[in-house]
Write a structure and sequence with these properties.
four-stranded antiparallel sheet, globular, single chain, mainly beta, 289 residues
Length: 289
């Protein structure tokens, strides 16, 4: 879907029935309608676009990790960029919140940010340093839940900026991706421990070891049946985990394809971004095996 140096990283389904994805190495935002050829829009080549999501305004919002900006692109391809107040903050995860704004993580500044659709930015400091806040999602409790990759914890921030941290049972697990399940819990991946984690809104944590503990799980999402799908960046696989913790993994056909982001596509299939330069369609949800 892209040249091998472009670095597809994260993807999401837009309101226009297309997959939108980031090309972290080449500084572009891509768009793919399943069955058609992909297109892309150029950003600053060195900005490092990482995570992308659909905003409440119907545009696509993304983080520019190396440029310390939040970007917005309309479905027609018009791009806006918003500089963040803190230099060197390294924005990474981004997701819409229940308040009509976008919430994002600042990996190098130990902060959670909030940006309104008209570009007003607020930053909330975390009560830890060197924590590397990474992915972020909206919980069913109307809080924003996020992973603290280097602090080995899951965090929650409410709409007023109050933060609660939940340490993980496994030391140095290095959580990255996180998503909200249909069971009301938050599911996350532990890239250094080779585990999938689950945390309830009241903070109860369960961890499920993967068959390959060196697989380096990276991202997680859910299909329409409530099954969690995750990528194994180091194992060259995608996997599923059921609410009771049953794990199934599927090898990718191309060796060392480096799967990163994963999302439910507009065609009802799961799609993953392969850093080698492709998007992979995994399997229709209604015929998953």
């Amino acid at each position: 879907m892209a040249d091998c140096a472009a670095g597809p990283y994260a993807l999401t389904t837009g309101p226009d029935g297309a997959l939108w994805f980031t090309l972290v190495h080449s500084g572009r935002i891509g768009r793919l309608v399943p069955g058609e050829e992909p297109t892309s829009r150029r950003l600053d080549p060195d900005c490092g676009p990482t995570v992308i999501t659909t905003g409440p305004d119907g545009a696509l919002w993304f983080t520019e990790y190396r440029a310390d900006r939040i970007g917005r692109i309309t479905t027609g391809g018009v791009i806006y960029e918003f500089a963040l107040p803190t230099p060197g903050c390294g924005p990474f995860g981004i997701t819409p919140g229940p308040d009509g704004a976008l919430w994002f993580t600042e990996t190098a500044a130990d902060r959670i940010g909030r940006i309104t659709v008209d570009g007003r930015i607020t930053e909330f400091p975390l009560p830890v340093t060197g924590a590397f806040p990474s992915a972020i999602t909206t919980g069913d409790d109307d809080g924003m839940w996020f992973t603290l990759n280097q602090a080995n914890a899951i965090g929650r921030i409410d709409m007023n900026g109050a933060v609660t941290l939940h340490p993980l049972p496994t030391e140095a697990a290095a959580p990255v991706g996180i998503a909200t399940g249909l069971d009301g819990a938050l599911w996350f991946v532990e890239i250094a421990a080779g585990q999938i984690g689950r945390i309830t809104p009241d903070g109860h944590i369960t961890e499920f070891p993967l068959p390959d503990r060196t697989a380096r799980p990276h991202a997680v999402t859910f299909d329409g049946d409530g099954t969690a799908w995750f990528t194994e960046w180091g194992g060259n696989r995608v996997g599923t985990i059921t609410p009771d913790g049953s794990v199934t993994v599927h090898d990718l056909p191309t060796p060392r394809s480096e799967p990163h982001g994963i999302a439910l596509g507009p065609d009802g299939a799961l799609w993953t971004a392969l850093e080698i330069g492709a998007l992979a369609r995994i399997t229709p949800v209604d015929s998953a095996t």
